[in-house]
Design goal:
Blueprint (H helix, E strand, L loop, with lengths): L8 H5 L42 H18 L3 H19 L3 H5 L11 H8 L15 H13 L13 E4 L11 E6 L2 E5 L3 H6 L2
Length: about 200
């Protein structure tokens, strides 16, 4: 297993200094009191991830994260989509890849194994399509979670650092070499072992 370097999210997503918020591990999930309320009791920060306060790079990353959360877990509600959002964020921090390249990586997120998304993942400038209009609020929730991710306002990680997940109904072979961290809705979440854990393994 190659060494994975943990990068601050500010380097990955290009967060604003003006937000007065570090995207280091110590500040992630610190959120405002409104972020800690149930979704039904708080006002969504934004109904459009292409907010003027986001850079072009953040807008692009936000759209890719929103697509991942919505397409992988739109039936799982706020907590399920937040968990998938964190998987993308955790991978970005560890690998230094963009969110768009992560979700379009071959053999990874199944909804994005298409020519269109492969081109988006390989590009630094192609803007992903907007999320389709949904009959419920799921798309708006995914957009808000994505914006919080790229600006360092995402609530505490419920997956405990997970970089992989799968539906409960399947049993992929890779799960045997990872650590189960959380069960959220119909998904199981895992993280890869550290070098120390690999060295200490029998």
């Amino acid at each position: 297993m190659r060494l994975l370097t943990l990068l601050p999210l500010a380097l990955v997503f290009g967060a604003y200094p003006a937000l007065s918020m570090s995207l280091s591990a110590s500040s992630l999930g610190s959120g405002s009191p409104s972020d800690m309320m149930p979704l039904t009791q708080r006002t969504l920060i934004s109904h459009d991830t292409d907010s003027p306060r986001l850079t072009a790079h953040q807008q692009r990353e936000s759209r890719c994260i929103a697509h991942a959360a919505w397409r992988e877990a739109k039936g799982e509600g706020y907590e399920g989509m937040r968990a998938v959002t964190w998987v993308v964020v955790n991978r970005a921090r560890i690998t230094g890849q963009t969110a768009c390249s992560i979700i379009a990586e071959p053999g990874q997120f199944s909804p994005f194994q298409t020519t269109q998304w492969r081109r988006i993942g390989q590009s630094q400038h192609l803007m992903p399509p907007a999320l389709p209009q949904a009959r419920d609020a799921s798309a708006e929730v995914a957009k808000t979670l994505a914006e919080q991710a790229v600006t360092g306002r995402l609530r505490q990680d419920p997956t405990k650092g997970s970089t992989h997940f799968h539906a409960r109904r399947v049993r992929p072979g890779w799960a045997k070499s990872t650590y189960l961290q959380a069960r959220i809705g119909s998904h199981l979440f895992y993280r890869v072992p550290t070098y120390i854990e690999v060295a200490q393994a029998p």
